[in-house]
Specification:
Elements lengths: L6 E4 L1 H7 L7 H13 L4 E6 L12 H8 L5 E5 L3 H8 L5 E7 L2 H8 L3 H17 L3 E7 L3 E2 L3 E2 L2 H14 L3 E6 L6 H14 L4 E6 L6 H10 L4 E4 L19 H10 L8 H11 L10 H5 L4
Parallel strand pairs: 1-2, 1-10, 2-3, 3-4, 4-5, 5-8, 8-9, 9-10
Antiparallel strand pairs: 6-7
The protein binds 3-hydroxy-3-methylglutaryl-coenzyme A (HMG) and magnesium ion.
Magnesium ion (MG) binds next to loops.
Pfam families: HMGL-like
Keywords: Lyase, Metal-binding
Family: Belongs to the HMG-CoA lyase family.
Length: about 300
């Protein structure tokens, strides 16, 4: 039984841009976010409050947030630690994504802590955010494979998810960080998660390194998932996950779903307009199939 409607969580302004080496001007990012919202994307990762030494591209997070919050959207920002959360508290943003890797080595490369150290820091932060009325999204990296450690046990992924759900997380965004999962693995893990966390919003986050993102999304839908993180133009990748390509492209996912009569409420022509706003400022080509066929609106 496939869903009749799917929610797209646009991660282009965050995952999409964080790996771009040349700084994308803050005004361009603001315009990109507005154009994505105009295309109908109502849930979005705007930016991240991480160390500007580690990820200089996200150094303008406060300015982005100040300009981009709107009433009818869920505007999410990422924060890896206490310092990041304190920076979020200085803004009006009410939805926070924390992020942790199942694999220790990846987590150490990404946020300089073991997975357990991150859990110990983040669980009390989630409780605090919930007491203050925030929406909390927990991003689970390397849920299938790690670029350093190889295959990841589903049991370890489940345990990490459980720690955050028990602390009060509203949503789990479960990620194939390096785009290595195959469709049967997507189906298996998301079936398990659906069974284990029936009350939690469950979202799948696929990178498209091996061009299996669309198939993995289809397999996840068969397991009952109806929320997907995607990135306009298929931009993206984690700077600390070598070999990771961009996210599933929003336009390719929307096209597939609309062809299947699954509603997304996203306008493809307006999405192309948004991509064309940011395109002159990024170094990599836009490789999504839909964009190649319809580069202009
Ligand atoms: P650290 O060097 O261990 O931090 O980095 P520290 O606590 O030792 O502090 C060192 C300095 O950084 C201090 O400044 C802190 O104030 C500052 P100094 O005293 O030297 O001037 N600092 C901060 N500044 C701003 N914002 C902060 C912050 N924290 C400390 N939040 C840290 C640890 C976590 C900060 C660092 O490793 C970091 O920023 N990592 C972020 C990495 C990142 O952004 N990765 C990409 C996002 S995750 C992702 O893409 C995966 C996802 O898409 C799902 C998937 O696909 O898998 C979500
Ligand atoms: Mg990602």
């Amino acid at each position: 039984q496939l869903p009749t409607e799917v929610t797209i969580i646009e991660v282009g302004p965050r995952d999409g841009l964080q790996n771009e080496k040349a700084f994308v001007p803050t005004d361009v990012k603001k315009g990109f976010i507005k154009a994505l919202k105009a295309a109908g994307l109502t849930e979005m990762e705007l930016t991240s409050f991480v160390s500007p030494k580690w990820v200089p591209q996200m150094g303008d997070a406060a300015e982005i947030v100040a300009d981009s919050l709107t009433k009818d959207s869920r505007d999410i920002v990422l924060a890896p630690n206490r310092k990041g959360i304190d920076r979020v508290y200085m803004t009006d943003c009410k939805a926070v994504a924390i992020f942790v890797g199942v694999s220790n080595t990846f987590n150490q490369k990404n946020i300089n802590k073991t997975t357990q150290e991150s859990v110990d820091e983040i669980v009390p932060i989630i409780r605090e955010l919930k007491e203050k009325g925030y929406f909390v999204r927990a991003c689970i990296s390397t849920a299938f494979y790690c670029p350093y450690e190889g295959a990841v046990e589903s049991e370890d992924t489940l345990l990490l998810c459980k720690a955050f759900v028990e602390a009060g997380a509203d949503e789990l965004s479960v990620a194939d960080t390096i785009g290595m999962a195959a469709p049967h693995e997507s189906y298996a893990l998301f079936s398990l998660l659906k069974k284990e966390f029936p009350e939690t919003l469950l979202t799948a986050h696929f990178h498209d390194t091996r061009q299996m993102a669309l198939t993995n999304i289809f397999a996840a839908m068969q397991a009952g998932i109806d929320r997907f993180d995607t990135s306009a133009g298929g931009l993206g990748g984690c700077p600390f996950a070598p070999g990771a390509a961009g996210n599933a492209a929003t336009e390719d996912v929307v096209y597939m779903l609309e062809r299947m009569a699954i509603r997304t409420n996203v306008s493809l022509p307006k999405l192309i307009e948004a991509i064309n706003l940011v395109k002159p400022h990024i170094t990599r080509p836009i490789e999504s199939s839909y964009y190649q066929l319809h580069p202009q609106t």
